[in-house]
UniProtKB/TrEMBL annotation:
It comes from Kingdonia uniflora. PANTHER family: ALDO/KETO REDUCTASE (PTHR11732). This is NADP-dependent oxidoreductase domain-containing protein. PROSITE patterns: ALDOKETO_REDUCTASE_2. Signal peptide: none annotated. Residues 21-108 form the NADP-dependent oxidoreductase domain.
Length: 125
């Protein structure tokens, strides 16, 4: 079970999310304690958000699912998570459409950037 962080556009949206985080997490902890789930985690949490969560939690998140790939490494988040015992589960879109020449929608740069392995798929007939 994951607590997901929706993107926000203002500080008031962040405060609303922050105010909902504690009761939501406490309910998720109760699910672990009752044996209904084995582990709980978060999705798309930043270092700041994890720090905020750890201030009141009894159960450390087992996982933080985030977008992570060679063009968006998030080294600080990965290192922080490892120090806190939180597994980082990477996800990345495959086949991101190209919006401008040489730039993907994620702003990750050219697909043929030097040093980046190229993955190709073959179709059998």
């Amino acid at each position: 079970m994951l607590a997901t962080d929706p993107p926000w556009k203002s500080s008031s949206e962040y405060r609303q999310f922050s105010n909902r985080l504690k009761p939501t997490w406490k309910v998720m902890e109760a699910l672990v304690e009752s044996g209904l789930v084995r582990a709980i985690g978060v999705s798309n949490f930043s270092v700041r958000q994890i720090e905020e969560l750890l201030q009141f939690t009894n159960i450390v998140p087992a996982v933080n699912q985030v977008e992570l790939h060679p063009f968006w490494r998030q080294d600080e988040l990965v290192k922080f998570s490892q120090l806190k015992g939180i597994h980082v589960l990477a996800h990345t879109p495959l086949g991101v459409p190209v919006s401008t020449k040489g730039m993907s929608d994620s702003g990750s740069g050219s697909e043929d950037e030097p040093g980046t392995p190229r993955i190709t798929f073959r179709r059998s007939k």
